[in-house]
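Q: Sequence in, structure out?
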Amino acid sequence: MFPTAFGNPSDLDTFSHLFSKLAEKAGLGHWHPHELRHSGASLMLAQGTPLHVVSDVLGHASIAITKDAYGHLMEGDKRAATEAISSALLGQRKRVPPRAAPNEGKETGGSGKTRRSLEA
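A: Exactly. Output:
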């Protein structure tokens, strides 16, 4: 992807070191190229890209690999699904878009959100 001046492939360690130095010089902190991959996957999921599509883009052998690595980012989808079924059961026609997952992992599927949503 990034050839040397002679057209040969760059050494991965050399490229990683150079990338990290450039990121620090730009004021972004200490980054490695692989972190761009994680950022890309996180952004795709935050924008609503289906998990199987993100898995395909990343080249994972199985969607389970992607879910294991990025499933925590999908907590907002679980919350939206709970609110959508609550609305459907109560006869409301309100579509609830997914929200971002909580940063600290405090809310999960077992947090009691379902019961409170049905009582609302």
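The CA atoms of residues 2 and 15 lie 8 Å apart.
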